């Protein structure tokens, strides 16, 4: 049995507010086929792309040498051992590397949206739930074509911008209907972490 839980990146000893737990149990009949390695590797791989900077904790029984070898192979580092459920448990932590580029959308989100919680996608626009939401509802809408920011838009971007704002209007309207309120914003200059035009639709309390 292997268990995983996401941790608060500000405090690696505490579960995050939006903690995600995964539990794996592999029957003896499935051993030796690589299923465990594939399944357990999926979580760190997803976090590395979709939620850079997050940490994942893995627990398994110390006596389960197969699981321990797998955890170490996946890059989990032992942080403690403790007794629970009548046996000694092993706790390891893996941290996703921080994305260091300046265009998360062109580099990661648009090429592989399967790792995201997609709200809308067509040939021109991608919309998805923010990978590290600042509000209870937080959706990001981006043009697939690289446009640096709202202030760099020109006449050649007309078709893309028309479609972008159609999608923004639709998602903002649905958010307003379901939550009672919505805000729409975009950032410019030093406020813009990712140098790719992106529009936030959000609602609810700030996290």
TrEMBL record:
<keyword id="KW-0378">Hydrolase</keyword>
<feature type="short sequence motif" description="Histidine triad motif">
    <location>
        <begin position="198"/>
        <end position="202"/>
    </location>
</feature>
<dbReference type="InterPro" id="IPR016181">
    <property type="entry name" value="Acyl_CoA_acyltransferase"/>
</dbReference>
<protein>
    <submittedName>
        <fullName>Diadenosine tetraphosphate (Ap4A) HIT family hydrolase</fullName>
    </submittedName>
</protein>
<dbReference type="InterPro" id="IPR011146">
    <property type="entry name" value="HIT-like"/>
</dbReference>
<dbReference type="Pfam" id="PF13302">
    <property type="entry name" value="Acetyltransf_3"/>
</dbReference>
<dbReference type="Pfam" id="PF01230">
    <property type="entry name" value="HIT"/>
</dbReference>
<feature type="domain" description="HIT">
    <location>
        <begin position="104"/>
        <end position="207"/>
    </location>
</feature>
<dbReference type="InterPro" id="IPR036265">
    <property type="entry name" value="HIT-like_sf"/>
</dbReference>
<feature type="domain" description="N-acetyltransferase">
    <location>
        <begin position="1"/>
        <end position="97"/>
    </location>
</feature>
<dbReference type="InterPro" id="IPR051531">
    <property type="entry name" value="N-acetyltransferase"/>
</dbReference>
<dbReference type="GO" id="GO:0016787">
    <property type="term" value="F:hydrolase activity"/>
</dbReference>
<dbReference type="InterPro" id="IPR000182">
    <property type="entry name" value="GNAT_dom"/>
</dbReference>
<dbReference type="GO" id="GO:0016747">
    <property type="term" value="F:acyltransferase activity, transferring groups other than amino-acyl groups"/>
</dbReference>
């Amino acid at each position: 049995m292997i268990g995983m839980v996401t941790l608060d990146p500000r405090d690696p000893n505490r579960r995050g507010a939006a903690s995600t737990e995964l539990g794996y149990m592999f029957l003896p009949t499935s051993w030796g086929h690589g299923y465990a390695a594939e399944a357990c590797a999926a979580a760190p791989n997803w976090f590395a792309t979709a939620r850079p900077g997050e940490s994942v904790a893995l627990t398994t029984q110390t006596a389960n040498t197969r699981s321990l070898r797998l955890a170490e192979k996946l890059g989990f580092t032992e942080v403690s051992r403790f007794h629970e459920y009548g046996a000694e448990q092993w706790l390891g932590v893996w941290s996703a590397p921080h994305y260091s580029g300046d265009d998360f959308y062109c580099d990661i989100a648009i090429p592989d949206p399967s790792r995201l919680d997609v709200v809308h996608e067509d040939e021109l626009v991608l919309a998805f739930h923010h990978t590290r939401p600042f509000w209870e509802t937080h959706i990001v809408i981006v043009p697939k074509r690289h446009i640096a920011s709202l202030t760099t838009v020109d006449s050649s971007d007309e078709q893309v911008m028309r479609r972008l704002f159609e999608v923004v209007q639709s998602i903002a309207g649905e958010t307003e209907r379901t939550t009672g309120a919505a805000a729409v914003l975009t950032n410019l200059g030093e406020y813009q972490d990712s140098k790719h035009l992106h529009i936030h639709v959000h609602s609810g309390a700030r996290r």
